[in-house]
Design a protein that fits this description.
By secondary structure, this protein is an alpha+beta fold. It contains 22 helices and 31 strands.
Length: 688
């Protein structure tokens, strides 16, 4: 990857330069370190051994004439190297002599001091004077605005200072093995990032026979992607920007998806088999079916534009309210609390991390809409339930409202499955498929994790294992909670066992032609409603190959929440038949004439590899559990959309992989690589 080089700043990538040793005359070691060392920053320094040394090894910083570690300004750390019993922790280093160390430079250090290596009181080597720079305050403040318990990984210095000093002094080698459990988007992104910084000893363990996880394009009737008869059974779109008051506001979150596609296209040299191309997505169109229960004279469902043109087709939703005025006032109370004006909209669109921190402060993650009305505003239960179900326990922070206000959207030509497929050349030969993890056991002595799976008879008591130095778990907690796990902290264990997931069902139907584009009121893309038919939810029409010939596919039902529990319990035949009958009611008899009988149905709660569509933390869960994901326990890092600030979107999975990989690299003392990853993938949120 191409990395923009900066000379200062907490996330800068400084070049290492060779510094001549001034004393002693025959040094055992010499130092290489950044040209400018940033006070208050974190750095890697390199040590070159010019002769053998066995035993204690300390690095300190202080006046260039000091003769003892006691005279130093500060100690970087102490370890043992070479032929010594306590040096066995460095087995992966040549002759057990590490050459790379971590320097957490204090804020109060000044220039013209030197690095010194000591063994006891014996000086092993001294560097030339060090040039110290001040932290780039503007850049640091931009990051610190979003640094709190919700996201300390932005500040690697803070993260490393929280650890035991000796545990972060010596960097690990890149020969350590990493097990990536799960081949969904977060697992694939993790593998890609590790490769990008020269870390190649990783393996993906995937329970299914494919990569991509919940990114799942269905190519109906056994067609190929370029035959354009597909529908998305998982995620399907990316909001790009929204226009308000003649101002276009770009949504930064999903730019990470576009950036990833660019990187994969370059990596694959734009090979047609793997190239990812984006096309416009139509989110709504005038003739999409409306939600009204009224019908046109021919019995079909009127479109959105028709209802606007003919108010008699609209349904008065307030007619059945017990007190319409009270409902309106309660709705206004909630909207006033959220306060989504232009300034806040701009914040949510451009910096979701800062928006999350603000949402925590405003209490948006403590209450659902109904919870706020009932417990903060003291509204009557019945009034509350008419505004928002009293069963609603989703946090009120409105980041998805911004997404769905978008006026520009994109999708991937030939299906979103093209995105995980583009990782194929990089990962397929290092992925073990059809290997369902069932347990993880931690060996405190060897500091290795054993990953257990049962490849044969599921009734066998014995399992097979693979050992890893580090493990990145990219599997939904809805599945992980069934594993036998090591004794993680109480908070992390509770997050694994209790984090809430949402169900969702989709049904895609295949037709002989794209008949919907040739109706008296043509339907050209977009997502509409199911005409008030229970259990249908959204009906979405493809945005690709508009007005082309050949067969067509409709996403005839997409719904989540409790109703997806009901439809998910139906037999596949009954569910598909129910949805096809709804298509006939919506579009008329032509939907019966054109139906080929080909379909796909996906209810994610029933998927053996997912057990849920996406993480949906209840009120209080998000800000309670998030800090647990930012701490590595027993060499284990957890990633996935469920560990991110946002949920259900591909961006969420990718962001978690950036955080998790950065976290792993910092745990290993690979500071330069952690900076490289953060700068490359997160710059749009932390640069001025």
């Amino acid at each position: 990857m191409s990395i923009r080089k900066l000379s200062t700043g907490v996330f800068a990538l400084s070049t290492l330069i060779q510094h001549a040793v001034t004393a002693p005359s025959s040094p055992v070691v010499s130092f290489r370190f950044p040209e400018v060392v940033e006070a208050g920053g974190m750095h890697n320094i390199r040590v070159d051994y010019h002769s053998s040394h066995d035993g204690e090894f300390s690095i300190v910083y202080g006046d260039c004439g000091i003769e003892s570690t006691e005279d130093a300004h500060h100690i970087l750390g102490t370890t043992h190297v070479g032929n010594h019993d306590l040096a066995k922790r460095h087995l992966n280093w040549h002759e057990q002599r590490p050459t790379r160390f971590v320097w957490l430079a204090p804020e109060d250090m000044s220039s013209d001091g030197c690095l010194h290596a000591f063994s006891g009181d014996v000086l092993l080597g001294r560097s030339a004077p060090v040039t110290v720079g001040r932290r780039n305050n503007k850049r640091h403040l931009a990051a610190s605005e979003i640094m709190d318990a919700m996201g300390p990984w932005f500040d690697g210095v803070t993260y490393l200072k929280e650890k035991e000093p000796e545990s972060v002094f010596v960097a690990q080698t890149k020969s350590k093995s990493v097990g990536i459990l799960g081949g969904g988007m977060s697992g694939l992104m993790t593998a890609h990032i590790l490769d990008s910084v020269g870390f190649h000893d990783w393996q993906i363990i995937e329970a299914s026979s494919r990569i991509g996880g919940r990114v799942h394009t269905s190519y109906l009737n056994a067609t190929k992607p370029d035959q354009y008869q597909y529908q998305e059974m998982g995620p399907m779109r990316f909001p790009v920007s929204l226009t308000m008051d003649n101002e276009t506001i770009e949504i930064n979150d999903h730019k990470m998806v576009f950036q990833l596609a660019d990187e994969l296209n370059k990596q694959n040299q734009h090979h047609p088999a793997y190239e990812v191309r984006f096309i416009p997505w139509i989110q709504s169109a005038p003739n999409d079916p409306s939600s009204t229960t009224k019908r046109k004279s021919d019995g079909t469902v009127p479109g959105v534009a028709e209802v606007k043109e003919n108010p008699s087709l609209a349904v008065n939703t307030t007619a059945s309210y017990s007190n319409a005025t009270a409902v309106a006032e309660a709705t206004e109370e909630f909207e006033d609390w959220i306060g989504m004006d232009l300034e806040k909209t701009r914040l949510y669109a451009t910096n979701v991390f800062k928006a999350h921190k603000q949402a925590v402060a405003e209490g948006f993650l403590d209450f659902s809409e109904s919870g706020y009305l009932r417990y903060k505003m003291g509204q009557d239960n019945n009034i509350t339930d008419q505004v928002d179900s009293v069963a609603d326990n989703d946090p009120a922070w409105p980041y998805e409202d911004i997404y769905f206000e978008a006026t520009e959207w994109r999708t991937i030509d030939q299906g979103l499955s093209r995105l995980p497929a583009a990782f194929g050349p990089q990962v397929l030969n290092r992925t073990r498929f059809q290997t369902a993890v069932q347990a993880m056991t931690w060996n405190e002595t060897s500091e290795k994790m054993s990953v257990h799976f049962r490849p044969g008879n599921p009734f066998d008591m014995e399992t097979e294992t693979i050992d890893f130095d580090y493990t990145i778990v990219a599997v939904p907690f809805s599945k992980v909670r069934l594993w036998r796990l090591p004794d993680y902290s109480s908070l992390l264990s509770r997050a694994i066992s209790r984090l809430n997931y949402s169900p969702a069902c989709k049904v895609a139907l295949h037709y002989k032609t794209r008949f919907r584009e040739h109706l008296p009121r043509p339907i050209i893309g977009g997502c509409g409603s199911g005409g008030g038919i229970s259990g249908i939810g959204s009906v979405c029409y493809p945005s690709y190959q508009l007005n082309s010939s050949g067969p067509g596919v409709i996403l005839a039902s997409y719904l989540s929440g409790d109703m997806a529990l009901s439809t998910g319990a139906m037999t596949e035949e009954d569910h598909v038949a129910y949805v096809q009958r709804a298509m006939i009611e919506i579009h008329g008899p032509i939907a019966a004439e054109q139906y080929t009988g080909a379909y796909d149905r996906k209810c994610w709660l029933n998927d053996e590899y997912q057990a849920g569509a996406w993480a949906s933390p209840t009120a209080l869960q998000q800000d309670l559990y998030l800090p647990a994901y930012f701490q590595t326990e027993k060499h284990t890092v957890f990633v996935g959309e469920h560990t991110s600030y946002t949920h259900a979107w591909i961006f969420s999975a990718l962001e978690s992989a950036v955080r998790g990989t950065t976290q792993l690299l910092l745990d290993m003392g690979l500071v330069d690589e952690a900076k490289q990853v953060t700068e490359f993938w997160m710059a749009r949120w932390i640069s001025m």
